[in-house]
Write a structure and sequence with these properties.
This protein has 4 helices and 4 strands, in the order E-E-H-H-H-E-E-H. The chain is mainly alpha-helical. A two-stranded antiparallel sheet has the order 1-2. A two-stranded antiparallel sheet has the order 3-4. The protein is elongated and about 65 Å long.
Amino acid sequence: MDKPGLTLRVDLSGGRAVGPGKIRLLEQIDKSGSITHAGRDLGLSYRRAWRLIEDLNNSFRHPVIEAEKGGVAGGGARLTPFGRKVVQLYQMIEAEALAATWKNRRNLQAVLNTTNRHGLRNSIRRPLSSPVARS
C-alpha cells in the first residue's frame, strides 16, 4: 500500500500563499544558483519562475532571493538569509501537519477501493466504462 501524503499550501493574508511549488523553486535556486536552471529543472519557463519569485519578494517585507544581472559571465541568483528562513518555516509547518494528520491519512488510505467489480484495478485517469443496460 502506498504511503498517504499531504500537499500543503499556506494561505496568508491579502490573498498571498506559499506552497510546495514556490518552496521547491527556492530550493532549486539555492542548489543551482540560477533562476533559469531552477525553472528548467522543475519544468517551468524562466518567465513563470521569475513571476513566482516576484510574488514571493512582493509578499514579504524582505526579499527571498537576490539576483545578479546577466552579462558576459552570466547572471545568478541566491537565496537571502530571509529566503532560507521562509523555506525552513514552511518545512516546519509541513512536518507538523504531516505528524498531526498521519492517523487520519492512514485510515483514509485503508478504505480506498482499489479494485472494481470485475477484479480490475480502478484508474482515475482512465476509468472503465460500465456496460449499459438494454431495455
